[in-house]
Description:
Elements: H1 14-33, H2 40-67, H3 73-98, H4 105-129
Helix pairs in contact: 1-2, 1-4, 2-3, 3-4
Amino acid sequence: MTIKWDKRFSVNNMAIDAEHKLLLTTINGLELALRHPEDKEPLLFFIDQLYEYSLEHFRHEEALQLQYFFPFRDENKRGHDELEIEITRIRLDIHRILKKAELLPEDIEKLRSHSAFLAKGWLMKHILTEDLKMKGFMGSDEP
């Protein structure tokens, strides 16, 4: 299921919003690639991109939180640390699954489960419960 950016996801910081949009686009790319799981290259590309960009985004967001004296920075960082462990685990599992010569139906279901978790259980949940707390603390795009 493709997720579209919605202004309710905005933290009113252009840089962070742009990064969240890119993460969402990458997850959507992974979801689209799962429509043809026999073509493993796009799946590997999107999970690797998501992994690398997530880590980069976390570090950048944490640096901005420090710069703006964000009061929930430690809590947000703990969330990032947990997400980093989870995306590392999922990435390794996807790589393991895709090394198989032939994917079984349960392998495809596991890949879809990982993708759904990344989209709903991770990105949307973290943005909507943790990152939205940054609104009003991280500068504003509004005049």
